[in-house]
Amino acid sequence: MLYTDKVLDHFTNPRNVGELEDADGIGEVGNAKCGDIMKMYIKVKDGIITDVRFKTFGCGAAVATSSIATELIVGKSIDDALKLSNKAVVEALDGLPPSKVHCSVLAEQAIKSAVTDYYTRQGIDPIPIVGEVGDCDACHH
Fold it and tell me: Of 3, 10, 85, 130, whose CB neighbour count within 10 A is largest?
């Protein structure tokens, strides 16, 4: 299985790792059965994601997709962050092996899960904005 230089870079030098103590939203997706668990923390000010951190338990591709996803949403509006697709995550990493594409889906879902938590804490129903955050399809094998 060959990884791109960008995947290897984000795996060996992940950006935005850790927790945000005063996070405005926290999302966790994945499960121990599939082996990948992502936890994403966001800080929001005036509708803009001002800071983001992640903790990922999983393979190198899971760490890399989490890392690049945080870079792609920091400084962006919540609406723009919600538009980040797993396809955009894969493209930003210059590709992933087919067996690892589910990791990019987890990254997309982790963002949605954190935004869902943010809206819930604000007393806003997140479903009309975010939609349902389901389980990773790859976790059903």
Answer: 10
Q: Where are the domains of the chain?
A: 5-125
The answer to whether residue 34 is catalytic is yes
DSSP H helical ranges for 2-85: 5-12, 60-73, 78-82
Would the pTM count as exceeding 0.90?
yes
**Cα dihedral sign for 59, 65, 92, 13?**
negative
In order along its 141 residues, the chain shows pLDDT tens digits of 689 999 999 999 999 999 999 999 999 999 777 789 999 999 999 999 999 999 999 999 999 999 999 999 999 999 999 999 999 999 999 999 999 998 899 999 999 999 999 999 999 999 999 988 866 555 544
Query: What is the separation, in whole angstroms, between the first and last Cα of the chain?
Result: 20
Residues 92, 31: Cα–Cα separation, whole Å:
25
Enter the CATH code of domain 5-125: 3.90.1010.10
The span from the CA of 113 to the CA of 126, in Å, is: 10
- Catalytic (active site) residue 59: no
Tell me which residue of 26, 95, 105, 90 sits closest to 58, measured CA to CA: 105
